[in-house]
Structure formats: structure tokens, C-alpha cells
Design brief:
8-stranded antiparallel β-sheet; mainly beta; 3-stranded antiparallel β-sheet
Length: 159
């Protein structure tokens, strides 16, 4: 520790939290080739066991689909993150989804983003897996995540 270390401005740590409570799975286990093959960017999935989806990063909502099935956030560091709730759930036209986000809105880690009706999604025959896709990183390096395990919404999942 140097003499002036305590005066150095500390950079705020970049945090990614789980957008849902459930089991975190690798992309290859997601039952949709676009997400499984990470065509949109580095992807993980959470098989949800509860209905609340939260913001995984702090930033500005760049896009909030009116159907509530997906939203994108850009951080001040330059990360761009997309959260997509369920596979092919866009065809539900918002039925079973209540969004709490609007484009241009500032959000903090863990803010409530979407409330989903897991029963309606299942009844409609869709997979409810919540995908977290990092579409852009400022340095081009992938995010390093914790081991795949059970996670709680709002739990830090990056290393």
C-alpha cells in the first residue's frame, strides 16, 4: 500500500445480478438456437421459479418492448445488456407480462423490471427461461460468471 493509495479515486465495481430467482444455466442448455449459440452475444439463462424479473445492471433502459417480454439496458461503462423472458413468448402479445420499464428510464441493479405469470406461460406451452445477453462490452472481453447454480433475483453473478 502506497502512501497516497487512500486518496486515489476508486472505480465503482461493475456488477451484474441475476434477473430472476431460479437455476442459472449455460447458453448451450437453452432450448432456442439463437440464444444457445449466443448469436446475439454472451448468454446465460435462468430457469425461473418465481415471477419477478429485475434489472441485472445499473444504467439507462434503451428498449422496453411493449409486450413486456424483453428489455435492454446500457450502462455508463458501455455495456449493453438484453433480458429476454421466455422462448417465443413475444407471440403472447403481453398476456402474462407486466412491465415496469420505459425507454429512457434510469435503473439501478435489482429494480423491478417485469412481473411474469409463470402459469400463463406454461399453459400457452412456452419455455419461461429468462435469458441474459451481454450484447456489447466496452473492452470486448466476456463477463466472468459464478458457477452455474441456484440463484436469487438481485444476487451478484459476475466475478
Amino acid at each position: 500500500m502506497g502512501l497516497f493509495d487512500r486518496f486515489k479515486k476508486k472505480e465503482k465495481e461493475f456488477t451484474v445480478v441475476s434477473p430472476a430467482t431460479g437455476v442459472m444455466i449455460p447458453a448451450k442448455e437453452i432450448k432456442d438456437p439463437v440464444f444457445a449459440e449466443e448469436m446475439m452475444g454472451q448468454t446465460i439463462g435462468i430457469v425461473p421459479s418465481q415471477s419477478t424479473v429485475v434489472c441485472p445492471v445499473e444504467g439507462t433502459v434503451e428498449v422496453a418492448f411493449p409486450t413486456g417480454h424483453a428489455f435492454g439496458i446500457k450502462t455508463k461503462e458501455g455495456y449493453e445488456v438484453l433480458v429476454h423472458v421466455g422462448i417465443d413468448t413475444v407471440s403472447m402479445n403481453g398476456d402474462g407480462f407486466t412491465s415496469f420499464l420505459q425507454a429512457g428510464q434510469s435503473v439501478k441493479v435489482g429494480d423491478k423490471a417485469v412481473e411474469i405469470d409463470l402459469g400463463k406461460i406454461a399453459k400457452a406451452g412456452f419455455d419461461p427461461t429468462v435469458m441474459l445477453i451481454v450484447t456489447t462490452t466496452p473492452d470486448g472481453k466476456p463477463i466472468s460468471y459464478i458457477d452455474f447454480t441456484s440463484v436469487e433475483k438481485g444476487q451478484k453473478i459476475n466475478k
